[in-house]
């Protein structure tokens, strides 16, 4: 029987409206009690001093590319699942930018087995929405769900076929699984490499117009409304997308959305250096979009924060910008980015941050074993030092990808310990 | 024609960059320095026909990953006029065709002991990438639709030779602004030196965002023509366009080609410029291209002087960076009659 008593920490769990200094007792992989009396403690219970730290449910990432099988040079399930823990994510939805793609029972099983062997964060499989991820024919969604897929998506591509998306939304109602769409109209995105705006105009780089995202979101939410299917759009990055989501939510349509911390903190001005580490997808937008996006995260229009982890090997990132793929390593910086740019600026408080990073994404993904530290919950717990400022050195990442737009920057907020099912799987000193 | 060079020391003091990547990041004083040195080089070499052995022993590598005739030859001649050696590199038939990356190819060439890499590439920002990765001086000879700084400088030099100054001048860039690196260099150079810049063409080629950046945007050439002191006619870059941004070449020519009828509406002393290659009958008709207002061939000649100036200034900054004292012989450097 594994037991831990985490004491002196600031316990935050928005789901139970909890925010106070207290003690958390973990027994047998589950949260046994909050503030137990000394008499209720098992004998010789190991104690973890969380003085000055935040104790919260582990973060849940709605989409991270793992790249295995097929692109192990970018990332493996093992490296990503441990990078996730170092970033505070105890559950991650792995999207299927793999080769072969995840459109079969065997492919789902492969990832699940590899994830179990890795003993890092919990890895949940996102199955392909279309066969071969070719955007034509529905994949065997029912069988994939049976194998353990928690959601379906053709990410990082949007579902290009309107009728396919509509059918899939209808079909998935019986499976109780959400569809995650990365919204972008391909013909408008064309071969753009950065936000289409003043900066791209001056740099002569081909732009990704905001309309490409706006129109895709408009299509997606309309089809969700028509079908009653569970749709999650994200990551989003534009004012138009925010406006659309806000409007449909006000009409009671059940659509959720997410955004990435780097899209909430950096602008397209970063590309002035022409460095490939700023070529990310969705692109870094202009300050007006960033400001609107921050407001939408604060007021809940955007439900969740996600890492946007798109690992690519160093050799792939060492090319001219046209040939360089979109990519970045962000599992290990997302939380600190959000702390630095959203909490320290007063846009979010800690309760909202944990809500957007843990509670809501767990609910969106239908994960019953994540997003809360209420008694009886699975003990996926993270300890965060909220005041620790650290310099981002990608060479120290657990991820295989060392491309980060935050390289060399000081960020605040450090994950000190992460626990999965009551087992300590990450300590900052490790 | 002088037998020795004037003292270049004052120019050296006004310049400390080891790379020439764009005009946007240069100050007005730096641009003027480049133009002044170019003028000195041109006069000292009789219109760039003779050699000045200022940079003997140095080597200039031309790394051209896109086709080029005038720019490549102009850089080669400029280096040779300064007494430097040249290495020519084209991507076809090279290791690039075998899968070697742009950066690795450049590093390989650099390892052969070159002092400058002159690079042209279809992707914006590639010279900036090389400037980070290489130790030698990097000159941008055109990076996709981003900038072509020496083209911008030679255009500025040509205008200054004819008009003396830029204050109060109205200069229109006409045509494919969206895909033009010449436009993106000229716009900044002209703006910094005090000219009023108009970008003119159909909305699919001229973004309204230029207005937000402080430039005049026009879509009707006939409306702005009477106000212009200089017209710089840009080629339609079909090779960079996936979808044609106007209905037909015929329609484009009708709306934007500089022709004899339009010349009658222009100022008497208007300068007609084009970065070349020109599409006769599309952006300019033969009678205008070859007419008395055209300075197109002067631009080509000024290109050598500008590139000599750029090579010399970067080398001087590089020497300073490496702690090498300036050549004490410089003011008395002999000018030879050789032309190659």
TrEMBL record, chain A:
Protein name, as recorded: Dihydroorotase
GO cellular component: cytoplasm
GO term, biological process aspect, one: pyrimidine nucleotide biosynthetic process
GO molecular function: allantoinase activity; dihydroorotase activity; metal ion binding
InterPro entries registered for this protein in UniProt: DHOase, DHOase/Allantoinase_Hydrolase, DHOase_cat, Metal-dep_hydrolase_composite, Metal_Hydrolase
PANTHER family assigned: ALLANTOINASE
EC number: 3.5.2.3
Name of the coding gene: pyrC_2
Keywords carried by this UniProt record: Hydrolase, Pyrimidine biosynthesis
Pfam families: DHOase (PF12890)
CDD domains tied to this protein: DHOase_IIa
Residue stretches making up the Dihydroorotase catalytic domain: 53-238
Automatic annotation (TrEMBL), chain B:
Gene: pyrB
Residues involved in L-aspartate binding: 98, 181, 235
Descriptive protein name: Aspartate carbamoyltransferase
Enzymatic class: transferase
Residue stretches making up the Aspartate/ornithine carbamoyltransferase carbamoyl-P binding domain: 18-161
Organism field: Stieleria varia
Signal sequence, start to end: none
GO biological process, one term: 'de novo' UMP biosynthetic process
GO MF term set: amino acid binding; aspartate carbamoyltransferase activity
Aspartate/ornithine carbamoyltransferase Asp/Orn-binding domain mapped to chain residues: 167-313
């Amino acid at each position: 029987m594994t037991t831990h008593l985490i004491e002196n920490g600031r316990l935050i769990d928005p789901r139970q409206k909890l925010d106070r200094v207290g003690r958390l007792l973990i027994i047998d992989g589950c949260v046994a009690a909050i503030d137990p009396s000394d008499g209720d403690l098992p004998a010789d219970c190991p104690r973890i001093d969380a003085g000055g730290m935040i104790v919260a449910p582990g973060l849940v990432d709605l989409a991270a590319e793992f790249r295995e099988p097929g692109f192990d040079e970018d990332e493996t399930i093992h490296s990503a699942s441990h990078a996730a823990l170092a970033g505070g994510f105890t559950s991650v939805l792995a999207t299927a930018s793999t080769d072969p793609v995840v459109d079969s029972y065997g492919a789902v099983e492969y990832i699940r087995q590899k994830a179990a062997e890795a003993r890092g964060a919990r890895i949940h499989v996102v199955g392909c929405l279309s066969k071969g991820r070719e955007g034509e024919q529905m994949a065997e969604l029912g069988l994939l769900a049976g194998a353990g897929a928690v959601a379906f998506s053709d990410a990082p591509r949007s579902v290009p076929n309107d009728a396919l998306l509509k059918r899939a939304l209808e079909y998935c109602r019986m499976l109780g699984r959400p569809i995650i769409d990365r919204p972008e109209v391909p013909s408008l995105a064309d071969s753009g490499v950065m936000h289409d705006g003043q900066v791209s105009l001056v740099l002569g780089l081909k732009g990704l117009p905001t309309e490409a995202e706006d129109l895709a979101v408009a299509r997606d939410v309309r089809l969700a409304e028509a079908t009653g299917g569970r749709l999650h759009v994200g990551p989003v990055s534009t004012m138009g997308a925010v406006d659309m989501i806000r409007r449909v939510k006000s009409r009671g349509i059940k659509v959720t959305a997410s955004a990435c911390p780097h899209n909430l903190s950096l602008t397209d001005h970063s590309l002035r250096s022409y460095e490939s580490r700023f070529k990310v997808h969705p692109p870094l937008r202009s300050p007006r979009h960033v400001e609107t996006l921050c407001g939408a995260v604060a007021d809940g229009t955007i439900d969740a924060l996600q890492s946007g982890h798109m690992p690519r090997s160093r050799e792939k990132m060492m090319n001219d910008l046209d040939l360089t793929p979109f990519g970045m390593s962000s599992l290990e910086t997302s939380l600190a980015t959000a702390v630095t740019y959203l909490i320290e600026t007063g846009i979010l408080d800690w309760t909202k941050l944990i809500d957007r990073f843990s509670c809501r994404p767990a609910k969106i993904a239908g994960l019953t074993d994540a997003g809360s530290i209420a008694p009886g919950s699975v003990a996926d717990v993270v300890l965060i030092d909220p005041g620790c400022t650290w310099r981002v050195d990608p060479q120290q990442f657990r991820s295989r990808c060392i491309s980060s737009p935050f390289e060399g920057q000081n960020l605040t907020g450090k994950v000190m310990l992460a626990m999965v099912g009551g087992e300590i799987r990450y300590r900052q000193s490790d | 024609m002088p037998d020795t060079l004037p003292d270049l020391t004052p120019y050296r003091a006004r310049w400390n960059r080891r790379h020439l990547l764009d005009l946007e990041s240069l100050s007005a004083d730096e641009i003027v320095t480049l133009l002044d040195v170019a003028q000195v080089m041109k006069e000292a070499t009789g219109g760039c026909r003779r050699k000045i052995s200022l940079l003997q022993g140095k080597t200039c590598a031309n790394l051209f990953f896109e086709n080029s005739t005038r720019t490549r030859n102009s850089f080669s001649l400029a280096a040779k006029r300064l007494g430097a050696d040249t290495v020519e590199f084209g991507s076809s038939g090279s290791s690039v065709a075998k899968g070697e990356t742009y950066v690795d190819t450049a590093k390989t060439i650099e390892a052969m002991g070159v002092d400058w890499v002159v690079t042209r590439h279809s992707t914006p920002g590639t010279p900036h990438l090389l400037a980070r990765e290489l130790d030698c001086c990097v000159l941008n000879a055109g990076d996709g639709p981003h900038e072509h700084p020496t083209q911008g400088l030679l255009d500025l030099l040509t205008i200054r030779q004819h008009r003396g100054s830029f204050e109060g001048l109205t200069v229109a860039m006409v045509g494919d602004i969206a895909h033009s690196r010449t436009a993106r260099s000229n716009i900044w150079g002209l703006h910094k030196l005090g000219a009023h810049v108009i970008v003119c063409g159909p909305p699919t080629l001229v973004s309204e965002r230029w207005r937000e950046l402080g430039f005049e945007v026009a879509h009707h050439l006939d409306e702005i023509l009477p106000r212009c002191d200089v017209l710089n006619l840009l080629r339609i870059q079909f090779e960079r366009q996936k979808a044609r941004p106007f209905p037909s070449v015929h329609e484009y020519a009708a709306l934007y080609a500089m022709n004899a009828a339009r010349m009658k509406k222009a100022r008497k002393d208007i300068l007609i410029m084009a970065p070349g290659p020109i599409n006769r009958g599309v952006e300019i008709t033969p009678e205008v291209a070859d007419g008395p207002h055209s300075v197109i061939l002067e631009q080509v000649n000024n290109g050598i002087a500008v590139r000599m100036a750029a090579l010399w200034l970067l080398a001087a900054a590089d020497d300073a960076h490496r702690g090498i004292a300036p050549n004490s012989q410089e003011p008395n450097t002999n000018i030879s009659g050789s032309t190659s």
